[in-house]
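Records of this kind hold a single protein each, on a pair of labelled lines. With that in mind, the following record should read easily:
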Amino acid sequence: MKSFVAFAFGASFLAPLLWGCGNAPQAPDTPNLKPPAQEASFKQSVESSVVKSELGALLAEAEFLTTLQASKAKYIVIQVFAEKCGPCMEEALKLSSLAPEWSKRGVAVIGLAFDPRQESVQRFFEDTGRRVTFPLYCAPWFAEKHEVLATPTLFVFSFDGKKVYVSDPLSMDATTIEMVVAHLIQ
């Protein structure tokens, strides 16, 4: 199977795919971002601008649109991540620093994990130093439905569930998503 993937997508594409899906190093050195005022516990609910939910709760496909609409945001930035993905951790911390300003302008942020296990989301949260301030869900169906081949991948959806933007994980940087969001909310 791996040889078929390498043949179909090219060796240069396979390395980031495998790296983003669990073979990445532990949490990267990241700037000391201000931690949230109150840390969320794994067994507690996490309060956010999107919904109140247990960290790593399974988000079923049938609940997706309701979750977007519960945000009352005009746009929702969705980060698709993998548990041990270093770039995913970096990006999650960057999104956490942008989320408070974006929420004032009608943009919410949520994270969706490839892995259906709540423990993998909890480990991702721990590996980021418990500094991710937006809701993190298990939603393995999302990656398959939207053909996510590497992490991190960012999407922007509108309030009504329409896909507005999809990042290219091989050439994505934090500035790109900032520009996309700035364009949408102007």
The helical segments are 2-9, 11-23, 64-70, 86-104, 118-127, 140-145, 174-185.
